[in-house]
Amino acid sequence: MEEELLLVDERGIATPVAPYALADAPAGTELRLGAEIQQEMIETQTLPRLTTHDLYADIVEGRTLADTLARRHGARAVAVAMSPLPLRPHATPGPRYDQMMARYGLTAKGTLVCGCHVHVVIHSREEGVAVLDRIRTWLPALLALTANSPFVGGVDTGHASYRFVAWHQWQSAGPTDVFGSVEAYDRFERLLVETGVILDKAMLYLDARVSHKQPTVEIRVADVCLDARDTVVLAALVRALVDTAVGEWRSGVAPLATPSAALRLAEWQAALTGVGGKLPHPVTGREGTAVAALDALLTHTARALDSYGDLELVRSGVDRILRSGEAPAVSGTPSPGADGCVTSSPRRSR
Asked: Are residues 323 and 180 in the same domain?
């Protein structure tokens, strides 16, 4: 898991203390902290984990470490996807970020968004591409579930996730069509880089991609979650989606052919109304509700969730999120019972 956290001062205003906080990071710690494009944010990275219990402990420890280091410099580390108050970002110095600031104007200079990325191990790039092809229609539901940026720059945006809107200023952000093979995926990457519009493969800001650094698929569609318990729910769902996709691939089940343009519309709707509004159905693509989409997601991943012992955790977690977003519970979902370190705030639903 990778979580991007916003650094704010005692007034709640984003403050550029990441370089100082990172300089104070203890040597030898297993959990990693890293810089991001703006100095008002910091990234935490967990260890690879097999259980949601261990993953939750890592997430809380990473947030605590980032907050402890930020406090030394008059700031706090908070899990919100965009600053609710006005700010002026300060770019992190370095050759790559310097080049991006010079080349991409306000898109680079003005964008400060905090997402949550989930990595799941794959056994081959063939498996990874097969996974991307089969999870793509379910990603808008994950965006709706994690929406955590309704207020930006002192304004009620009317969106549950305005991070989605801000992030999609970047040229390569968003969903993809079905690839069908590693060769097609590699050709797609090569074509986008060869346009000269982006610097390199690292700027392929896709909703989901095969990592070039680790043997994983990386799912990047979510806002960072205020409540660490919600982050674990997201991770468990993503792992179950990947496992289910692998099973379908090995069984010869073809991926849905929903065009990426339709998925972009679904994501936009998810970002607008979150869990409390409409959302095209992940299978049919037709008009529906976020509750129905999440119900379908739980049904789709139930076997994989159960195999890891995560089914009840995810059901209760989804119910908790739906109630915080003022949406009805999914069918068959029990009352929440998970413990957490923070309480999630009401989500914007319209």
From this structure: yes
